[in-house]
Amino acid sequence: MFKIGDILMLEPKYPSQKEKFNCMVVEMGTGCVYTDFPINLETGKIAFLMDGTHLNVTFSNEEQAVYVFDSEVLGKVKGRITMMQLLLPEAEAFVKIQRRQYVRLHVTLDTAVHPEHSEFTPFRALTEDISAGGASIRLLKGTNIQSVSQLYLWMALTLKSGEIHYLRLKSKVIRVTEKEHGNMLLHVQFLEPTKNDVQTLMRFIFEKQVDLKKKGLYV
């Protein structure tokens, strides 16, 4: 259902306070999965969950379907890195979530806007916000792409690890709204992004959220 490198979201089932954590799958086992130590979404700090902690685990698969399953912290294991071992139930115990609202982050990213065919000349623009499902792009006054139904966004995302991911996202134009001084916002939905693209976007947004929380700029 998932593989090494995938992101899992963890929520303790019986918390003293509401908390969420993200972690990455680093190894697969029989009846278990091994992850790096989770990061608290609120504080951005590494968390050490006690053995026996019962969890709700959320993840998305290759088809972007979202699933939840019950798990438990089985312990800590030393390997190439120190890992957390989680109970992995049979696939029949996974519950599919019909719809997911991706977190939308207000962030300025340099992006190149390309036509699907040759309806307009490619140009560079800045994002107003982005999620794993779509984005809003700032358009200068006079930019004429209202008649276009689909296009491509090209962007480079740099993760904290130093990795640079180059994305080419086929996008559907949802609407164009007017801003101040005649400028506009182009709202697009990503069409069938790959699982790697979605994972990269989710990790990038998560890391930016952590940075903003540390600076007191994100609630």
Explain what you see.
There is one protein chain. This protein is mainly beta and 219 residues long. It has 2 domains: 6-97, Electron Transport, Fmn-binding Protein, Chain A (Pnp Oxidase, Chain A); 104-214, Beta Barrel (Thrombin, subunit H), CATH 2.40.10. The protein has one helix at 195-214; strands at 7-12, 21-28, 32-35, 39-40, 54-60, 66-78, 82-87, 95-97, 110-115, 123-130, 134-139, 150-158, 164-178, 184-190. A 6-stranded antiparallel beta barrel has the order 1-2-3-7-6-5. Strand 6 (66-78) and strand 7 form a beta hairpin. It is elongated and about 60 Å long. The two termini are 32 Å apart.
How does the SSE layout of this entry go?
Elements: E1 7-12, E2 21-28, E3 32-35, E4 39-40, E5 54-60, E6 66-78, E7 82-87, E8 95-97, E9 110-115, E10 123-130, E11 134-139, E12 150-158, E13 164-178, E14 184-190, H1 195-214
Antiparallel strand pairs: 1-2, 1-5, 2-3, 2-4, 3-7, 5-6, 6-7, 6-8, 9-10, 9-12, 10-11, 11-14, 12-13, 13-14
What's the short version?
With 219 residues, the chain is mainly beta. It is 9% helix and 46% strand. A hairpin with a 3-residue loop joins strand 10 (123-130) and strand 11.
**CA-CA gap between termini:** 32 Å
Work out the radius of gyration.
Answer: 20 Å
Provide the succession of SSEs: EEEEEEEEEEEEEEH
Q: Any guess at the CATH architecture of the largest domain?
A: Beta Barrel
Shape: elongated
Tally of domains: 2
- The mean pLDDT is 85
Please describe the biggest sheet, giving its number of strands, its sense, and whether it closes into a barrel.
Answer: 6 strands, antiparallel, barrel
Q: Can you tell me the CATH topology of the largest domain?
A: Thrombin, subunit H
User: Strand tally, please?
Assistant: 14
Low-confidence stretches: none
CATH superfamily of the largest domain: predicted glycosyltransferase like domains
- The secondary structure category is mainly beta
Name of the top-level CATH class of the largest domain: Mainly Beta
